Inverse folding.
DNA sequence: CCTAAATCAGTAATGATTACTATTTTATTA
DNA sequence: TAATAAAATAGTAATCATTACTGATTTAGG
């Protein structure tokens, strides 16, 4: 990722314009509204580059899809196993980073995921 | 996962006998030494069941493979982008779980992943 | 023992992601 | 602003980790 491209720019804008954690395909469909003949491969290539550059986060919750996040601040991802949605929760400190660096590991990205049942689903079930 | 099976038992034992974070295929090769005609599909099915039952953890680090962990205590996974290995580090408290539950989310599993460069690779590079 | 449900071996299919190539776009330098 | 090399893209094809299917086997409980 050494050069600017309008495709990369559009992908980044789409990702930053949502507070969900979309898949590559979702991003592809959105970007296609602006750049109709963009290819899914281009979206994947840029998402990989943006992740490597630390401009976005890649989140995996075990549902078979890679999810992407335009918010790179350290925060908690709550994955509800009932509705299969990802919720965000802010964190006061980057706990992981501190612990990791104490042991000589140079951290540049931290991912926090909790699995369980969200507030809403809890009401419905019980 | 309501019934016992020797396949499930063997898979769990293999996973608990290592402190690495193997892939389904690695586990398959190991279990095959004991049960020669077990199938990869059986390994996958059992790993999914064991994960759902909370007996093992499923860790994803963005390398295209699902990794499994027989240690279900909350701990930190350090993924070195240089040597592509996963290191463990114990945690004094399950920070995520506390924060999540405060907001009404019922957590049953927490995953901590830090990306960066490990101690050894740091020496080699610099 | 018997039965029903769960799991398995064996095999085939799926589909998210990656790879490839010729063309176009970008950054740089003169 | 033209020339050049490197990087990115469109278009297409391939990969391969994972899941799905089916008939046979194993398990749990009475």
């Amino acid at each position: 990722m050494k050069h600017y491209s309008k495709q990369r720019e559009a992908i980044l804008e789409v990702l930053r314009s949502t507070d969900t954690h979309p898949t590559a395909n979702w991003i592809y469909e959105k970007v296609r509204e602006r750049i109709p003949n963009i290819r899914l491969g281009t979206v994947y290539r840029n998402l990989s580059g943006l992740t490597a550059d630390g401009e976005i986060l890649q989140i995996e919750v075990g549902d078979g899809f890679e999810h992407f996040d335009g918010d790179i601040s350290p925060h908690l991802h709550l994955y509800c196993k009932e509705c299969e949605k990802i919720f965000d929760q802010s964190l006061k400190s980057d706990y992981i980073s501190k612990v990791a660096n104490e042991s000589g590991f140079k951290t540049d990205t931290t991912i926090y995921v909790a699995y369980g049942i969200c507030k809403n689903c809890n009401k419905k079930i019980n």
